[in-house]
Design goal:
By secondary structure, the chain is mostly helical. The chain folds into two domains: about 190 residues, Four Helix Bundle (Hemerythrin (Met), subunit A) (Up-down Bundle), CATH 1.20.120; about 55 residues, no CATH class. The longest helix is centred in the N-terminal third of the chain and has 31 residues.
Length: about 260
């Protein structure tokens, strides 16, 4: 029984471990490798809650562990990643050959400017978001504000677009713009704490009637990913927010 009740906690600690490794790679400028590690954390973050519900071993300690792990992986890591991206843009480094020829994007870049610190507001608002989630009874079956993993997916998609889709001129140009990155940091931070009800991607059953919104979202998301690759990630999150708003306004359905 002792082992059984701690299986979800081990998955949560795996999330934390991957987040710590990702943070090390961000410090070293290896943003793509950091993103893969965050992807591993996303998988573990999904399965720790799923496993706890399946084994019926949910606990207050597990909930606290989850938030603490998420603060590192989905709070500190995206904030530091944005810090690095802004620093590289200020140094005109992102589009130079080393940025696109390997896993590393200028590991030791430093810049004499305070602008990169804008990225850390993501970390601050992620902390507020996680604290609100733990104490908001309205968020037991849905979300109020953008979940921190979704926000992290948007931030982490940027180095993947640079590394694997440099032919996307307009998107690459935006990522190379300090003001765009700063504005994105503010927008994503506000979305984390915005009073916007968002539907949860959870299935209590698999019927169309009870899950049509989720099925529509997943179908469109799959098409976007197949057609646009990593560029689809921020568009999928935007779709998630827009579908939730449409659901709230027109379908009059409580999410």
């Amino acid at each position: 029984m002792y082992i059984k009740k701690n299986i979800p906690n081990l998955l949560t600690l795996g999330n934390l471990f991957c987040g710590c490794l990702a943070l090390i790679h961000v410090f070293e400028g290896e943003l793509v490798m950091a993103t893969w590690l965050v992807g591993g954390s996303l998988v573990l973050d999904f399965f720790d809650g799923f496993t706890a519900r399946m084994l019926k071993v949910s606990s207050a300690i597990g909930k606290d562990l989850d938030s603490l792990a998420d603060m590192v992986t989905f709070g500190v890591v995206p904030g530091m990643m944005m810090y690095k991206l802004i620093a590289y843009v200020l140094l005109d480094h992102i589009l130079e050959p080393p940025a696109l020829s390997g896993w590393t994007i200028y590991p030791a870049a430093t810049v004499n400017s305070y602008l990169p610190y804008i990225g850390l507001i993501i970390t601050v608002f992620s902390c507020i978001r996680l604290a609100k989630f733990n104490n908001d009874t309205r968020q037991s079956d849905s979300f109020i504000g953008l979940p921190t993993p979704a926000n992290t997916m948007v931030i982490c998609s940027l180095p993947l677009i640079l590394r694997f889709q440099p032919e996307l001129g307009p998107a690459v140009s935006l990522i190379n713009n300090v003001w765009f990155l700063g504005l994105l940091s503010f927008i994503m931070s506000l979305l984390l704490v915005a009073e916007i009800p968002l539907f949860a991607l959870k299935f209590k059953n698999f019927s169309w009637a009870n899950n049509k919104l989720v099925y529509v979202f997943l179908a469109i998301s799959l098409l976007l990913i197949l057609g646009l690759g990593f560029l689809a990630v921020p568009l999928v999150i935007l779709l998630y927010i827009l579908l939730s708003i449409v659901n709230n306004i027109f379908l009059k359905k409580k999410v």
